[in-house]
């Protein structure tokens, strides 16, 4: 295979691929229907021309038949008048007209068959165009639906990887994080408040106990002291008992 053939095949393949990818079904259908309408106009013109030719041939055939009859009558008239040579000439003219008439009859039959064929083709073409109009609307609707479905599928397919969808998902995650931090802050605030109240309650108990101890040390009659048990011994009584016990121990030692 030569280099030129290979290059030619590659070029034709690329052109075919480019044309195929550029074909829009809706536009192609409209253009095809326009072409069919133009073909219909040309077919009608051809049928009209064929019918006109048929009519002209029919007129020429009829005229040749009329001329042949006229020369027949003239030949009879000349023969009746005794002019045989004139009658012979009239018969020759009649023969020419008959030959012309026969040729026209053959052409007329052929033209009639042609006109009939053209008429049938015209009727068939009109039917195909009417069917094509119906199919065109249906195919355009199907093409539009297919195109819309393809665009929808492409859009859905791109949602997972598109920048906009990614940004949307990031913002959703950020909102969730903000809500979690807000909830945690609220819980921490509630815990701090409980701890503060617990410290206050604890400090109150310690202060009360401290006041009670101060009152015991001072020994004064204070409201805190009045709250102490009545059976608690005083400091003086305790010292006297200790001295008595000490004296008793000394006496025991002297007796030894």
UniProtKB/TrEMBL annotation:
Keyword Coiled coil belongs to the record: yes
Coiled-coil intervals, chain numbering: 54-149
Keyword Metal-binding: no
Classification via InterPro entries: PspA_VIPP1 (IPR007157)
Annotated keywords: Coiled coil
Region span, Disordered: 221-256
Position of the signal peptide: none
Comp. bias (Low complexity): 221-243
Family membership noted in the UniProt record: Belongs to the PspA/Vipp/IM30 family.
PANTHER family cross-referenced by the UniProt entry: MEMBRANE-ASSOCIATED PROTEIN VIPP1, CHLOROPLASTIC, PHAGE SHOCK PROTEIN A
Record-given protein name: PspA/IM30 family protein
Species: Thermoleptolyngbya sichuanensis A183
């Amino acid at each position: 295979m030569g280099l030129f053939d290979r290059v030619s095949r590659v070029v034709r393949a690329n052109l075919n691929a480019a044309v195929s990818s550029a074909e829009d079904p809706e536009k192609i259908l409209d253009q095809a229907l326009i072409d069919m309408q133009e073909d219909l106009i040309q077919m009608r013109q051809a049928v009209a021309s064929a019918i006109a030719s048929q009519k002209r041939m029919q007129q020429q055939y009829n005229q040749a038949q009329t001329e042949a009859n006229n020369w027949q009558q003239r030949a009879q008239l000349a023969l009746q008048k005794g002019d045989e040579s004139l009658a012979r000439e009239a018969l020759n003219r009649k023969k020419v007209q008959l030959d012309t008439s026969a040729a026209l009859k053959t052409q007329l039959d052929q033209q009639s068959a042609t006109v009939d064929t053209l008429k049938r083709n015209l009727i068939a073409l009109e039917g195909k165009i009417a069917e094509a109009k119906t199919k065109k609307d249906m195919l355009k609707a199907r093409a539009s639906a297919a195109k819309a479905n393809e665009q929808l599928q492409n859009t859905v397919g791109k949602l997972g990887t598109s920048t906009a969808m990614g940004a949307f998902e990031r913002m959703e995650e950020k909102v969730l994080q903000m809500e979690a931090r807000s909830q945690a802050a609220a819980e921490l605030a509630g815990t701090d408040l409980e701890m503060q109240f617990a410290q206050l309650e604890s400090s109150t108990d310690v202060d009360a106990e401290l006041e009670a101890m101060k009152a015991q040390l001072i020994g004064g009659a204070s409201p805190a002291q009045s709250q102490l048990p009545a059976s608690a011994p005083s400091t003086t009584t305790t010292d006297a008992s200790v001295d008595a016990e000490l004296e008793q121990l000394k006496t025991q030692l002297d007796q030894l």
